[in-house]
Fold these 2 entries.
Entry 1:
Amino acid sequence: MQALPLRLAPGDDLRAAIEAAVRVHGAGAAFVLQGIGSLSVARLRYAGRPLPTELAGDLEILTLAGTVSPDGAHLHMSVAGPDGAVLGGHVAPGCIVRTTAELLIALLAGHAFARELDLATGYPELAIRRL
């Protein structure tokens, strides 16, 4: 496992930047171990909902974790607003960094991740292969 610390700048799209960083490093499998920072926009898809909800304003990233494959990322995040209320869910594209996002990504040599349709769930789920 190779550790990849990453800092994102204001205006970066959180999900797109994570996917790009893993792609640039040529990793076929990665985990986002943790992330903190702030967002001006968070787009979260809540459990059982088909579409993401957009939250705007001063938001703090409390937790961020997930998997990244060449097919894209599967990330979950919790954020707090100015009143401290916490919301969380699946990270959709369009989460915009406000001041910073500080992440730790683990690149997994010897593995390849893919998303494949799972007939039991009806969703593209993580497929793990050892190289």
Entry 2:
Amino acid sequence: MAKYLISFPSAAMVVADDCWDAVVRDSHAVIEEARAAGVYVFGGGIDEGVPPMLVSADGAVIGGGYPWAPTLNGGLTILELPSCDEAIAWAARIARACRCDQELRVFGFDPQS
């Protein structure tokens, strides 16, 4: 089985203030369903209150990430699934719950990690 990364950038979540409770409830329900199905690996979101740091091999630290790369923010979920079709189905469930499209990628899991 492959691991799939399902994610979205923060800007994709355009939700009315009075809908946030429903988004949280619905997204947590999908994650609970994934756990019950035994396909949930982990998930969460980037803490956007803490700026990224670029750390070099000698330990030098520069504030900010790669200047040429897009900003990394938003939420992500990794699921272990038997097929891309099942990954698409789970991504659609998460998209419905989060009220925004989800990006789907095969996650290059390193079994030595």
